[in-house]
Amino acid sequence: MSELSPFKITIKEHHVDSYGHINNATYLQIYEEARWEIITPRGFGFKEIHQKKMGPVILEVNIKFLKEIRLRETITIVSKLTSYKGKIATMLQQMVKEDGSIANEATFVFGLFDMKERRLIEPTPEWKSALGME
């Protein structure tokens, strides 16, 4: 569907494990940080989520570890919204090394969650805009 804003990050000491590469759980934190950097500047940040009482919720994640990412490497997270059918969306995020190789990729299945009704809802125009759909 659409490629979203790339997010660049340098891997720091708190990201790595005793082997000197990114800890497996940290991949999800970095991907989440990149997603916040997509939606916040487009008017769907933490403040707006709590005002509107609706926000994104992850339903499923599939992650592939392809190449080691080590301390002090700079990587770019590339995010692509690949589908949005009904209430369910899919996003591919990849960690790209400086040489252009893909070190990690994850597919996230998610939706827009109504915090009052406690259920998934159809995407609103504001949510679509935050995802670069409009």
TrEMBL record:
One of its GO terms (molecular function) is fatty acyl-CoA hydrolase activity. It holds the Pfam family 4HBT_2. This is Thioesterase.
